[in-house]
Amino acid sequence: MTSPILRRDLLGTAAALVGTAATLPAAEAAQISGSLPWSPSEGTPPPVEPTQPYTWEFFTADEAALVGAIADRIIPADDLSIGGKEAGCAVFIDKQLAGNYGKGTNYYLKGPYRPGTPQQGPQTLETFAQRYREGLAALVAFCASKHGGAAFTTLSAADQDALLHEMEAGAFYTGPVTSTAFFNQLIQNVREGYFADPIYGGNKDMAGWKLIGFPGARYDYRDVIGRRGEKLDLEPVGLMGRPGWNPA
Amino acid sequence: MALKRPKADAVIIGLGWAGSLMANELTMAGLNVVAIERGGWRDTSTDFPTSMDTDELRYATRRELLQPLSVETMSFRNNPGQQARPLRDFNTYQFGWGAGGAGSHWNGMTWRFLPNDFQTYSNTVAKYGKGRFVTGLTVQDWGVTYDDLEPFYDKFERYAGTSGKAGNIKGVIQPGGNVFEGARQRDYPLPPLERTRAAELFDIGAKELGLHSFPVPAGNTSGAYVNPLGIHMAPCTYCGYCEFFGCGNWSKSSPNACILPALIQRPNFTVITESEVMKVNLTPDKKMATGVTYIDKQGREWEQPADIVVISAYQMDNVRLMLLSGIGKPYDRASLTGVVGRNYANQTVSGAGVFFENENLNPFIGAGALAQSADDYNSDNFDHAKLDFIGGANMLIHSTNGRPIGSANVVPPGTPRWGSEWKKTYKDSYQVGNSIYNQGNSYPHEDVFLDLDPTYTDRFGRPLLRVTFDWNENDKRSGHFMADRAVEFGHAMNAKMVFRNEPTAKHFSPMDNLSSHTTGGAIMGDDPMTSAVNRYLQSWDVPNTFVCGASAFANNGGYNPTGTVGALTLWAAEAIKTKYLKSPGALVSL
């Protein structure tokens, strides 16, 4: 059903377009020959790779090193894939905490603060950025108390794991809640950094997607949906494409 | 003093599915309609382009299309003896935000409720006796039947471009469809979606158990389609970015794709975006609405006068707006009187995690409503004579997405949450893990209700809605029975590992994200003592106010609610057009 209004509007639009074309200044004319007048990824946002050396937006250098070391224990480097630190999880979290997520823009942080039941969810009024600042400081202090003042980053992998297991079990407090809450936050954010699109600063070379065989930001599987149960081996693609699309 | 806009024939609060459908019908009938939407305008091609839509972090993890909790959240408690606390983090309640509402970012499962779902009270009493209801259950008939709504389900499916296979056309059973469904006048407008390996495995299980397998009716287009408004929809590409995402491909049934492109061009329609309705204004005797008061983006207060007010926000916000406006008597748990906030229900969820061997499920190939299902244990589709509960659940396997952040917990229970062992297990599970998901009937109970929170407020300082909910005894029995069925099903599919999932065995928490399908609180019915609106969704107390949405459900079916939201809204719109406009006033006399 096409309403008379719709038809009238369409005619009006068409007339306007004709008028525009007729009055284009001559300077905007172009001759196109031999190849398409565009380059891959032209006109898209700046390159994915963070500038080297990366300038931390939220973390101090010490905090960044600590988060990188934690990311490497939550998702360790092994024969399956690179670790969380190399994948850029600390960079990812830094960028998140410096933005709306860190500020808690979309979350309900109004008081009064009153503890609740587990079913009522987290009750802290702190932003995610504040939770990191406080949580990392508490971890530094806990680590120092257990290891004669040593920094987490200097411990062996086994000692780091042992410390994180204690943190996971709630060995210390960050603000009014046990360290379990902050550890859960770390697991979630490190996973995000490892598996989110590389535009966010992590998932280097789509390592996270390659690990599990996720094809990424593709949006059309009609050509393969009929191959039910087959191993498809689709190379991942990010929102910015993939290296093969941008030959050096 | 509030600024004042010219009077409209009808003002619509919230431009989701219910608001869009109502606005479409009323403007086609010639009424001058103004809709007020709390979020912004959202357009299929420019707001959800496929080149930026496939971003899990932005939309699924951070839930960018949902209403921010800083705008409004709910407070929650499990029982009336507790103090409620605000839900500060994203959770199972998923409010829409912007033109299209939750209809922009839903998955698209487009069910018709079963005939029994509308008449559970009468049918149960007749078949099993009153003693079958556990203490405190407040089951009651809806005041409409499936047959009343059938033409409106059909109309909604045509607008939405639903893909499916009929199971019962005019009483003739259609193999391959849902043989338990109520009789329909004709098949779906589009055939079912493509099948996945998961659907094949489900069919193996269903055959082994003698159950009737069929594809879930989907608000994802299986092919090109032109709806009755002349809007062209394009075939779904199975991208796997549906729930929490908009669809820039014109493939998801949504107000943005199916209604708004036609509606917005009518000169007798206006939408005011980024503006929040504070309350419905009433005459001093509270017998009629005069319009609404809203606050615009600049913080200015406006009055929009209107002859008809349609409250069509999210189910919970419909209830909250009624309470804030003083429409209808609030439910009081102590005296068991009042109706607004009563008969709140959720969804009785259970299931089983299933992990296969030597399979490539390719979970990233999916659509929001791409699922294979069996209805043999839903509602009263099976004999409850030897059981001690009512209702049941639809069982399904879902091929919806393989997004890697959200799938990171799809590993066998007992797997460490971090470290190399988690990593290896996640890699190994990714292609072989899925679940049998039972979404069950949920029946209202006198201890479960919605009211205004005494402590916590929204951005304007108005009380939050307080949710008091926990599983009732019927939910627990039904959930336990259905978890058994899911485990049985997992083994029948030859899964290597099957893990029982029975959330009803512990206290409900919104943080568990079991189901967003909340219903009731402003229910329809035949009796103003036990319902907030009559069978035409018209307020008993303020007859020029209609309340459209899942808030009208007297109980929840074992299905997603949107198909029934659409049908009820179109049914109410028909009553307004054919009855109310001719003779404004109460459509049901007592």
UniProtKB/TrEMBL annotation, chain B:
InterPro entries: FAD/NAD-bd_sf, GMC_OxRdtase_N, GMC_OxRtase_C. One of its GO terms (molecular function) is flavin adenine dinucleotide binding. The keyword Coiled coil does not apply. Keywords: FAD, Flavoprotein, Oxidoreductase. Residues 218-348 form the Glucose-methanol-choline oxidoreductase N-terminal domain. SUPFAM superfamilies: FAD/NAD(P)-binding domain. Residues 449-568 form the Glucose-methanol-choline oxidoreductase C-terminal domain. Belongs to the GMC oxidoreductase family. This is GMC family oxidoreductase. It comes from Acidisoma silvae.
